[in-house]
Amino acid sequence: WYGVGSAMRGRLPTWVEAATDNYLRDADREPTDFYFYATSLHWALTMFTPASMEVVPENSYERVFTIVTILTAITCFSTF
């Protein structure tokens, strides 16, 4: 998820830029890579559970990646 957001950075609005803006509202320094990886892990876990999260797709590439992830989760969990 972090790779998808980072690949489009500067060309399209991405979740990475949105998360950075949200982070900077509460802090006086740029977020670390650990913050982005932890946020990505949190996002991935919410795709496989009924949990919610404030990080959402910001462009069509991220949205397609999210859809594929959700369909994969549905397929995996429906087979067990």
Rg from alpha-carbon coordinates: 13 Å
Name the poorly predicted regions.
Answer: none
How large a portion of the residues is in β-strands, by DSSP E? under 5%
Total number of β-strand segments?
Answer: 0
Helical/strand content category: mainly alpha
Shape: globular
For the sheet with most strands, the description reads: none
Average pLDDT, to the nearest integer?
A: 87
Q: Termini, distance in Å?
A: 25 Å
Oligomer: single chain
Q: Could you spell the SSE succession in H and E letters?
A: HHHH
Number of helices: 4
**Percent of residues in helical segments?**
55-70%
List the helices and strands and how they pair.
Layout: H1 2-7, H2 15-26, H3 33-47, H4 60-78
Structure in words:
It is a single chain. The model has no long low-confidence stretch (mean pLDDT 87). The relative contact order is 0.17. The chain is globular, with a radius of gyration of 13 Å. It contains four helices and no strands. With 80 residues, the chain is mostly helical.
